[in-house]
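Repro:
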Amino acid sequence: MSLAFPNASRSFDDVRNVIRFTGYDGMFEVKFFVDAAALSAKRLSEQDYLRAFDAARSKIQQIALKLYNPKHGMTYTLRAADLR
């Protein structure tokens, strides 16, 4: 199976300062986090971070597909360097 993103939901984790989203490899859930600093150099509101994520969703998911390897775990954090 390959990684897919059938669920468009995402959420902001204020404690970790990341946006969470989920992919699926068959029946296995793969957790992804995008460091908020990767979306903006300045501090934004939760809604602004989510809007920035939505605007870059296609690119973020393409990067997630490239980074994903089931042998390396089921949790990934994307940082600013990954989004360049």
